[in-house]
Design a protein that fits this description.
heterodimer; A: mainly alpha; 1 helix; 48% helix; elongated; B: 612 residues; alpha/beta; Nucleotidyltransferase, domain 5; DHBP synthase; 3 domains; five-stranded mixed beta sheet; globular
Chain lengths: 48, 612
């Protein structure tokens, strides 16, 4: 039963959330960027 | 009254506890040494108990407890990974998600830590503070270092989000400058190749590093084209389509098989030229990234000293390249550069906030006490153990130990050396070491096969008197914690006849006056020993030099392959009897193998200790 609920959660919530997010911005920033000179993310005192 | 802060790392790998008094480490140990489970990730109850015992305190005397990771931030990264990898990673989600979601699950590790500490029944436990993973690494790298100010670089697999972080350390403050985030991780890249070459992730990486000199980096260009985009400043992104770790099950899959000529090597299968070449290739790429990051660190901070921590700082070959490149005047690597050191760093970060000062600055020394922060056993305890078990032994006078052991070493004997407080971090540093004569051409195979029972390609490492280091190694600075690789000095190298040997046959070629510790590329992972942190060890090296003219010894960790370094006299004796170690020098006692009763065990211990 638990596996089934997780399955539903995964395909009905996690997957659409992931796909939607990737339309805007990949939460994992996977794409390489040939134009960028650096991949550094500057630090501020507060993290998201 | 000292202000005491206890730091904890737990639940991922290398659980540890560290106690800091007024900002200085006074006790630290990895849980694996107590439980005898290598890289033990379980809650470090025994390490905590040890730290409290060493200081003679209870939790009522401890002002603060710090945990080395932010579980709620980590959870957000885990969620982002599930979402980012969907819909193809259901098995990972199904297996991993519940433990995060559960009421007392991984999201609330800090509460779990407090509960576990309270269970020890040693007083009221303060609320547990969390410090971020990379902040813990950075603190462990900078605060105990000898530098008033320094650039700090931490590179590992991943903490919460950050995988690579750059900091500026000044006085008692650490300012974060920039970071790279999961899934882009140099540690993951190295672990992927570790896995693909048939070794265990998180413990086999240094085997891959040891394999690299046997190969040629013929895959390096392919790695740069297909797997990692490296910018001039050393920052990078991985092409995640070629890796499997976002789906959680393994590091690599069919993409690697297609790129690198076939399936992953079976863990106990034969090593082939492909693995040597893959190792050489990923090592070269790793060094390139680390060198570029080091230059960036200097440019961004203007500092002439660098502090390193994080699992990738255990790549001592890369560390050596950074030092050789002269980018910095000096580099200091936290001896417990991996996650165990996070316990220390978290405690130190909290201690600095509570107003601790770095009193050791200006002395030129660091504040790690030679990383000899674990339990010691005095001669009464050792004597009681030996007598109670009817173990034949000889008691020596204070002055005799170095002489007697040096004599046996010079005779080609292999010596188990158990003295003083146990080391904190992965390296044995002359407290729990197995020692041998490095000039003996048979020593490397003897030690590999008859002591460590391990793969024969793995080199051994030297300890050298600090004052004589420059005669034997091209090392620009000291290396007390054995985390730097340097070339053997030209004066010690031998002419190597062209033999056309490749691969493991390279092992048989004698290339220096200290063959047991010279790797096939004329390099060595050096420990420089001065008289200050470990006087008995220094005396031993000096006695060996007086006898033989050679100020170098093979220093390998006191354990068989797969088990953690020995902690107690009993563990030392068992290792001594299971192997071909000839002599055990434990505290003020000397034990000869020839005088020992026959050794037998109920079960075959070789099948019981999991292969690493």
């Amino acid at each position: 039963m638990r596996t089934f609920l997780l399955f539903l959660l995964y395909h009905l919530v996690v997957t659409p959330a992931g796909l939607l997010a990737r339309l805007v911005r990949d939460p994992l920033s996977r794409r390489a960027d040939a134009n960028a000179t650096t991949y550094w993310i500057p630090s501020d005192r507060r993290h998201r | 009254m000292s202000d005491l802060v206890l730091g904890i790392s737990a639940f991922y790998h290398d659980s540890a506890a560290a106690l800091v008094a007024d900002g200085v480490a006074v006790a630290a140990a990895q849980e694996e040494r107590f439980t005898r489970k290598r890289h033990d990730a379980a809650f470090p109850s025994r390490a905590v108990q040890y730290c409290l015992d060493e200081a003679g305190v209870s939790f009522d005397d401890v002002s603060a407890v710090a945990y080395y990771e932010d579980p709620r931030l980590k959870f957000r990264r885990v969620l982002a990974t599930f979402a980012g990898a969907a819909p193809t990673a259901f098995p990972f989600f199904r297996d991993a998600f519940p433990s995060w979601l559960a009421r007392n699950g991984k999201r609330h590790t800090d509460r779990t830590v407090r509960r576990e500490l309270q269970k020890l029944g040693r007083g009221r436990v303060p609320v547990v503070s969390v410090r971020r993973h990379h902040e813990s690494h950075a603190a462990s790298a900078f605060f105990p270092s000898p530098y008033e100010s320094a650039a700090v670089l931490c590179v590992d697999g991943v903490g919460e989000w950050a995988t690579t972080t750059l900091w500026h350390g000044r006085g008692t403050e650490l300012t974060p400058l920039a970071e790279l985030r999961f899934p882009h991780s140099l540690g993951m890249l190295y672990s992927a190749f570790t896995y693909f070459c048939g070794f265990k992730v998180d413990s086999g990486e240094y085997k891959l590093m040891g394999l690299a000199p046997y190969g040629r980096p013929r895959y390096a260009d392919l790695i740069r084209d297909a797997l990692i985009d490296i910018k001039p400043d050393g920052t990078f992104r991985l092409d995640l389509r070629r890796f499997e770790y976002l789906r959680g099950q393994t590091m690599t899959g069919s993409a690697f098989e297609k790129l690198f000529d076939g399936p992953r090597r079976d863990p106990e299968g034969d090593l082939t030229e492909r693995e040597f070449d893959l190792a050489a290739s990923v090592q070269q790429v790793t060094e390139e990234v680390m060198l570029r990051l080091a230059r960036t660190a200097r440019d961004r901070t203007g500092e002439s000293t660098l502090c390193l921590a994080g699992g990738v700082a255990l790549n001592c070959v890369a560390n050596g390249k950074i030092i050789d490149a002269g980018i910095f005047d000096e580099v200091w690597v936290q001896p417990a550069a991996g996650d165990a050191g996070g316990a220390l760093g978290a405690a130190q970060a909290v201690a600095m906030e509570r107003g601790a000062s770095r009193d050791h600055l200006g002395t030129g020394r660091d504040a790690m006490s030679g990383s000899l922060l674990g339990p010691a056993y005095d001669d009464d305890e050792i004597g009681a153990y030996l007598t109670a078990n009817g173990i034949p032994h000889r008691r020596l006078d204070n002055g005799q130990l170095a002489e007697q052991v040096a004599e046996r070493l010079a005779d080609g004997k292999i010596v188990g050396w158990f003295q003083g407080r146990m080391e904190f971090g992965p390296r044995a540093l002359g407290a729990r070491s197995i020692l041998g004569d490095p000039r003996d051409p048979r020593m490397q195979s003897a030690m590999n096969l008859k002591i460590k029972f391990r793969e024969s390609f793995r080199p051994f490492a030297p300890a050298v008197l600090a004052e004589d280091a420059k005669d034997y190694f091209d090392l620009r600075q000291e290396s007390p914690y054995m985390l730097v690789v340097a070339r053997v000095a030209a004066a010690q190298q031998l002419e190597i006849p062209e033999s056309g040997a490749t691969g493991l046959d390279l092992l048989r070629v004698r290339r220096s006056t200290i063959p047991a510790v010279t790797h096939v590329d004329q390099s060595a992972r050096v420990q420089t020993v001065d008289g200050r942190s470990n006087p008995p060890y220094h005396r031993l090296l000096a006695a060996f030099k007086a006898r033989t003219g050679c100020p170098v010894l093979v220093n390998t960790s006191f354990n068989v392959r797969g088990e953690p370094i020995v902690r107690s006299p009993e563990e030392a004796y068992v290792c001594f009897m299971r192997t071909d170690i000839d002599v055990l020098a434990i505290g003020g006692f000397l034990l000869e193998k020839s005088e020992q009763p026959a050794w037998s065990e109920q079960s075959d211990w070789r099948t019981e200790i999991p292969l690493d």
